[in-house]
Amino acid sequence: MLLAHGAGAGQASPWMVGLRRRIASRGHSVMTFDYQYMARGARAPDRLPRLMDVHVAAARHLATVGFDVAFAGKSMGGRVGGHVVAERGYPAMGLCYLGYPLVAVGKTEPRDTGHLNRITQPQLFISGDRDRLGPIEGIRALAQEVPDGSLVVVEGGDHSLVPLKSSGRTVEDALDGAADFVSAWLHALPPSAALHAGGGT
What we know:
Blueprint: E1 2-4, H1 14-25, E2 31-33, H2 36-39, H3 48-64, E3 71-74, H4 76-88, E4 95-98, E5 123-128, H5 136-145, E6 149-154, H6 171-188
Parallel strand pairs: 1-2, 1-3, 3-4, 4-5, 5-6
């Protein structure tokens, strides 16, 4: 699995490290990476084409060591992965979106997600029902609209799946649950023999 970070924190953030370790402990090979803007210390993400270039390069690197690659990403990282598959034709086995950013920061209208309808591989949305950037009814409709979509709702979870303190659950509990869902989804992915290996530009 190629696990991409969100806009505000890179691969070394506690959230990313925690999820990567949990997924790996469930028997999966997981690679993370930093987009170029994060690696050079910039606050604002690069434009989408540059983000996609880095995402493809990371996926190709993982594929060179003999792995079929599934995409997963926190917020922006998941969104970029969807564009890479839909617009660059990269043959990912499936895509997992951890807090899909359906509404951009400071905006009220949903983003255009028409490109996700062109993806035939399985798409898993894991979303908190308190996510202001991914209103749960909008995410539910999106998961139903794409060709092979499914949705896991994290009760009380915010954009990072973190529950309310009053629930008695912690971010560690949230990451444990997310890793369980991701692991089960990875085990259920169909063989990738039908995919055109080496695709993407």
